[in-house]
């Protein structure tokens, strides 16, 4: 059974009036499109408002800054697109999560994700928020996949779990950002079967 | 014995007059500083000329575009900083090359490297030139390290070499671009000993 991965946007201020969820989604979609086109640094609340045909005040009632808007957009998108798998095997869980993550990165969201990741080194506040939300959540799913594998007796005693979690993320992001090779299912299968499972599982 | 890794800048046009190598280095240094500050997209030949206290014509005599200048700068810097190791063992060669590469990325060049990598998704021509020069050369070194290991009988028959080459680069770039964790010797040791050597070597 799949359960939601991401716990929602703790950074989003909750105000007294009821929120219109579909309006919020339209504003996030606009933020995503603007970010894919111009990147994080050049994104303005004005441009997002114009794209969504909304007033700037409407946006500021929901998010107090562009940092809040962008981090909330990432978190919500991840929550909608990535679920925590529980297939009953280490290889099955890794395959399901990483193929969903690969599809997420190489789909329409990919351009915005690339723009965001590319700007992390220049934007310390964005980098810190991105690490606390998106990256921490993604690592959490991978850690829980490994914990369940251990409960089933699948892991070696000395399995380097932290390294497995890091390499899983690294393999996907490197293709997205550097090599440009396809982030497809055959690649995910090779990462799981050749690298991750032998790295941590017993009797390989 | 260490031999140079990178074969120099094939893209740099050679003109009839003799080149002043130290002047070229000063111009490349200026390009690096400007790129670290403003990124590739916002870099102009004017800004590089001003930084190096040179005329714009001086730069254009050496490089026909900012793409040529930036790719040549990357290639020359890599040539000066990264050598191809031959320590006599797979683990030794990987450790020597990856620790030099980690130091290269986390040193003063790191900011410019981050700026460059961050912009690859938005700059197809830059991405293509970067892959043909820098990335191809880095993969070439790793492939030759694996070939020498095979000649010494260190590799498994079915060693997934392409995956090992990809994971080696991915592990370092992921730290540089995403997690912000240190690219230090203990990390390189863990990547070599926990991931790369078990992935391809016999009897692990």
From TrEMBL, chains A, B:
Q: Where is the HTH tetR-type domain?
A: 21-81
Region feature (Disordered): 1-23
One Pfam family, short name please? TetR_C_11
Q: What is the name of the protein in this document? A: TetR family transcriptional regulator
* UniProt DNA-binding region: 44-63
Q: Which organism is it from?
A: Saccharothrix saharensis
Lineage of the organism: Bacteria, Bacillati, Actinomycetota, Actinomycetes, Pseudonocardiales
Fetch the SUPFAM superfamilies from UniProt.
Homeodomain-like, Tetracyclin repressor-like, C-terminal domain
UniProt keyword annotation of Protein transport present: no
* InterPro entries recorded: DNA-bd_HTH_TetR-type_CS, Homeodomain-like_sf, HTH-type_TetR-like_transc_reg, HTH_TetR, Tet_transcr_reg_TetR-rel_C_sf, TetR_C
| Top-level taxon of the source organism | Bacteria
A GO molecular-function descriptor: DNA-binding transcription factor activity
Task: Give the keywords, sorted.
Answer: DNA-binding, Transcription, Transcription regulation
Gene3D superfamilies reported for this sequence:
Homeodomain-like, Tetracycline Repressor, domain 2
């Amino acid at each position: 059974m799949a359960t939601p991965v991401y716990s929602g946007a703790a950074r989003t201020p909750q105000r007294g009036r009821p929120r219109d969820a579909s309006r919020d989604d339209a504003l996030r979609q606009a933020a995503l499109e603007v970010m894919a086109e111009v990147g994080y640094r050049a994104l303005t609340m004005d441009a997002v408002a114009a794209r969504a045909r909304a007033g700037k005040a409407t946006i500021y009632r929901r998010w107090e800054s562009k940092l809040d808007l962008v981090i909330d957009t990432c978190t919500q998108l991840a929550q909608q697109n990535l679920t925590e798998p529980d297939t009953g095997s280490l290889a099955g869980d890794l395959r399901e999560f990483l193929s969903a993550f690969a599809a997420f990165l190489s789909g329409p969201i990919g351009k915005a994700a690339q723009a965001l990741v590319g700007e992390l080194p220049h934007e310390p506040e964005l980098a810190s928020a991105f690490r606390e939300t998106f990256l921490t959540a993604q690592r959490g799913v991978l850690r829980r996949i490994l914990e369940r594998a251990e409960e089933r007796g699948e892991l070696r005693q000395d399995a380097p779990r932290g390294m497995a979690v890091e390499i899983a993320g690294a393999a996907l992001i490197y293709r997205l950002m550097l090599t440009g090779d396809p982030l497809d299912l055959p690649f995910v299968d090779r990462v799981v079967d050749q690298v991750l499972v032998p790295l941590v599982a017993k009797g390989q």
